[in-house]
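Q: I'm writing up a methods section and want to include an example of the input and output format. Could you take the sequence below and give the corresponding predicted structure tokens, formatted cleanly so I can copy it straight into the document?
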Amino acid sequence: MNILGKRLKQERMRKEISRKDLANLFSINQNTLGQYERGERKPSPEMVKRFSDFFGCSIDYLYGTTDISVPTHELNQLFINDQLDPQHLQTFITALEKIYLKSQSSNWEQDQEKAFTEILEILKSMTVAGKSIPTSTLQLLLPVLVRVRQEIESDNEKSWE
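A: Here is the clean output for your methods example:
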């Protein structure tokens, strides 16, 4: 199974949707979706974009160029709506990178609470152009952080199977 197929299947399972139902939603044959998931057939770039939008993950994640399925469209929307400036976005991305690196450690199971607490403290203490990141911005980013945590935990559970 190629990475795209594997991730399509993982995301479908995460959403708890059957192959048949997803195929119907996308107006494609169920066998075609199965071929995508097994890596026997490649979806068009337009179809991959539709999957990305539906699953709330980046195209890069589906193709395997990144391992973190951050809902980038949500971050982009915060940026577009002037709720998050580019410097705050970079600070948040740095924090996400630290979470990911910590998640790869051998003792992640014992350290995850500590790691996420540290990340929140890092976000609170970091400044941009001499000013602290506003609490309102942190509140906007918290749901994304929670989702990243859930995905890391889910990935770690799958790696033990």
